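Subject: Interface between my chains keeps coming out wrong

I've been trying for a while to get a sensible model of this assembly. When I model each chain on its own everything looks fine, but I need the whole thing in one frame so I can look at the contacts. Pasting all components below, labels as-is. Any help appreciated, I'm running out of ideas.
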Amino acid sequence: MSFCFEIHNNTVWAAIDGEVDMNVAARWREVLDKELAASMARNLTFDFSEVRFIDSSGLGVVLGRYKRVLTRGGKVRIVGANPQVYRILCLSGFGKLMEIEPPGEPKADKQSGGNGNAGEFGKIGGKL
Amino acid sequence: MIETLNNAASAMSGAADNFAENGEKCANFTDFANGGELENCKDFANGGELENCKDFGNCGDFENCKNLGNCKDFEKCEGFANLGELLNTARLDFAACPVNVSLARSLVASMIAGGIAGGWDITVSMLDEIKVAVSEAVSNAIIHGYGNDATKTVRMQVWQYRTALVVQVRDDGVGIEDVHRAMQPDFTTGVEHLGLGFAFMSSFMDKLRVESAPGEGTTVTMLKTLYADDSDCGSDSSAGGAEIE
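Reply #2:
Try treating it as a single job with all components included. I did that and got this:
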């Protein structure tokens, strides 16, 4: 399990890999909050390219950060989710709250923070 | 605690090894036998028939369905009948610590892999949904049942029937006062607890049974129908749980 953060164009880009369950949720919440507190960036993008599994513990962390970012006027996006993770996100109703990039679409370019060409993170995690 | 885990793990791998071999008799299930189950199963490995298992009836969890409420016989429990032959079962007791949630998922995934080899038709999405359901049940046991007390034990059992997978997760924790209320999607116990646990379990599995009482722990039993290709029931692509939006 590893966490990775980058800041581009007023957006904190937060990547996590592996299985996001209660075993990593608490630690992830802690580092995310620390990063958000330290950064002046307004928006938050979750890079789920390397996430193989997520349950409600992981979703709880996403929702908590969503509320936090909302209070500072920012937006939350989720990119790179594989079809299974995407399905869980949608079934949870997150699509009504934040932008979730459907699987198979060209990856967002983190440099622009918008929709761009597939870059170094261009792989779509379709594996089990 | 570690010893329990090791025993459980070696029982699992022992069972798997024996299954992989050509019809070894159950006598080789030495680790499995320590759990008090299956020791006299003459033909278990031969094709999944349990008729000849002399002592299976002594298995407290099964014949007497202690953990399925008042059902005297597992097969007669409402919604859990007509599952076809029992092909495999495994039990895992583990410490109520977060790292073991993935261990629980692995056991179920491994059992499902056996089911796929036996003809179950499962999509990647279905597999993932079952893993989410298991994850929620075990997380609930750890967080809510035991209040994150890692000295406590979560008990899990998985049954592979010809046409269905049954997963049971038990804790001896605080229990739930109002099970019906707790299973509502808007019921939540904390700021970042979504209240989605039971919603996921009931959506992703075909049957969900929750038994609990304050101070008496909680038993969650979930069933997923996974028709075998050669089943008379045919394959039914709508076998997945109802979707929530």
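Reply #3:
Confirming on my end. The beta strands of chain B are 86-95, 153-161, 164-171, 207-212, 218-225.
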